[in-house]
Amino acid sequence: MSRPYAKLPRWIDYGLIPLVNLVVAFLVAGLVVVAVGESPLEAAALMLRGAFGYAEGFGFTLYYATNFVFTGLAVAVAFHGGLFNIGGEGQAYVGGLGVAAVALSLGAILPWWLNLPLAIALSFAFGALWAFIPAYLQAKRGNHIVITTIMFNFIAAALMVYLLVGVLKPVGSMAPETRTFDAGGQLPKLKGLFEVFGFNLGGAPLNVSLFVALIAAVLVYMLIWRTRLGYEIRTLGFSPRAARYAGMSETKLIVVTMMISGGLAGMMALNAVMGDQYRLAIDFPQGAGFVGIAVALMGRGHPAGIVPAAILFGMLYQGGAELAFDMPTISRDMIVIIQGLVILFAGALENMFRPGIGAAYQRVRFRTEEPAGKNVGEAG
Amino acid sequence: MMDLSSFLDLIDSTIRLSTPLLFAALAGLYSERSGIFDISLEGKMLIAAFASASAAAVWGSVMLGLCFGILAAVAFSLIHGLASITYRGNQIVSGVAINFIAAGLTIILGQSWFGQGGRTPSLFGGGRFTAVELPFADAVRDVPVIGPIYSGVLSGQTPLVYVAFLMVPLTWWVLFRTRFGLRLRAVGENPAAVDTAGISVTWLRYRAVIICGVLTGFAGAYLSTGQAAGFTRDMTAGKGYIALAALIFANWKPVPVMFACLLFGFLDAVSIRIEGVDLPLIGQVSVQFVSALPYILTVVLLAGFVGKATPPKAGGVPYVKER
């Protein structure tokens, strides 16, 4: 047996250590900003102002966060089953087909609130389908899910370009995208709702998918911690041998877990396709599938952590866009670096500061308890 | 039907296209045989391609470029080592992180240094690897069959191509005929046994990871200063993952790795050529299908032909000394 790291109180384990990891990730990102000759403090200020400084920016932040809640939950569900779904990007992309299928065919017939559940179902189904083959190959053939899901990202990109250029593009149009959806294929924006509270969201594309995302977060919590299937998924993740010994079907669990994961990633398309662009366009996920990995790691796989982590990355996306406007050397690719650093420090290097923090905590506790010990000694 | 010259042309580009895969797959071989899974071949190739193209562009020397490429890739390897050996982190998570950092960093630094949207300036003259003429290449050119093969395919490649293929026997020799190789393989199967013999698991794994960095450095340098004339955004385009697939396909053995890489390189070369060609029964193949073909074939090959892949037993598991 390996010697585990010392047990620490929950607030250190789930609060302090992730916070320290996050701070270090941002410090290193700051060094990159210094390296390209800009001031990291100024960059951070610009970013914060862009993301939270005015209502429209905040609307954009929440819009991006909605994407990341879906993809973050997707990665987290797979993580609980011990599977690394790196294919969220492709699953989200293909999920767009499901949304487009509903919006294009029923958009002129049914109102949005009838189309929404259909779009949810189909985007989930398409995302799940795209995750099915890698899952099946992992379960039956032992092909590593990481490699196959990466390959499926590339394949999804080619497939979608093929469909958009060759099949879905309206006759006579040059742009590789579908026609604009009819009114029933457009989700309402939350502009009106926020105006009640005196905020003007301006052109921010925040829409009702935000609530779908939050409901999905609650449902994922219930699935993982309150259902039998969730228990089996966690068992599989904790120890595949234990799962096998307990009579659970590994094949079934891998496939089901990955399909739920892929389905959640596919639902991201609701927000971008039906909630914002009202058409299916090339590369609409814009890396959201990959951001999900960082979000899930930062949120420690728990919906209560994933939602704030998604908002943080929403802030980075929106603030980063404004930042790129003011500091041309810092393009959107800066976010990819930050994403990588967060994955590195919150995921792979999560143990780096643990011994140090643990030792410091022990010392503090020892020092505060010392006088009591001395009194006992004197009395004895 | 295909004539000899276009067939040789196909073989020639197979060799070129499989070279970066071969470097990367051998890099992965060292790392994974020592028990460190490495999904970050992609990112290390990318950062090496960028570093070598940048150095070659600034100083006009391809050898300096290669050195910087190797340095950059080794630096990233050490991060992977730190996360997966010293801090016992999840090796796949660490690899994914490195791939993202490399993808973003190359663009941000490239934009800041050269201002060309993430590309490096085009390389020319001494900034690129040039073709090596093997001895007598000219003399035997007119000999039927052997002549074109020798002077057209074997001769006239860039030096790194020869280095890559020489690495195969060298790797075999190192892994299976030296003490270091024996220990390296042992540490990937049963680190506790190696530890009991008084050999440092940590140092052994770090050495494997550094070798991995050096070889991915070669792979990246080949991409940007041998195959192409400069760095372009995301120029590895999944080659690191395909190399990993080749490694699994070859069951972590050096000589089969070479054949697997040649196979993937060949498929790549074919897929470039079938674009716009009328095939019997199928007709014209769409551009998108052709571009997706290497990835589809990777999945198909892994799914259909890998018997039972037997990865190193201790792969992916951090080693903890009992206390």
In short:
The complex is a heterodimer of chains A (380) and B (323). Chain A is mostly helical and 380 residues long.
What is the class of chain A in the CATH system? Mainly Alpha
How much helical structure, as a percent, in the residues of chain B? Answer: 55-70%
User: What count of domains describes the coordinates of chain B?
Assistant: 1
Structural class of chain B: mainly alpha
The biggest chain-chain interface is: A-B, 53 and 52 residues
Describe the overall structure:
Chain A: It is a multi-pass membrane protein. With 380 residues, chain A is mainly alpha-helical. Chain A has one domain (10-350): ABC transporter involved in vitamin B12 uptake, BtuC. Chain A has 15 helices and no strands. Chain A has helices at 10-35, 40-52, 55-80, 88-106, 112-141, 145-168, 191-196, 209-226, 228-238, 240-245, 250-277, 288-298, 303-326, 333-348, 354-379. In chain A, helix 4 (88-106) runs parallel beside helix 6 and helix 9 (228-238) crosses helix 11 (250-277). The radius of gyration of chain A is 23 Å and the shape is globular. Mean pLDDT of chain A is 87; it is low at 372-380. Chain B is mostly helical and 323 residues long. Chain B has one domain. Chain B has helices at residues 4-33, 41-59, 62-86, 91-114, 146-154, 159-177, 179-189, 191-196, 201-227, 239-249, 254-273, 287-305; strands at residues 278-279, 283-284. In chain B, strands 1-2 form a two-stranded antiparallel sheet. In chain B, a hairpin with a 3-residue loop joins strand 1 and strand 2 (283-284). The radius of gyration of chain B is 20 Å and the shape is globular. The termini of chain B are far apart. The chains are: A mainly alpha (380), B mainly alpha (323). At the A-B interface, helix 5, helix 6, helix 12 and helix 14 of A face helix 3, helix 4, helix 10 and helix 12 of B.
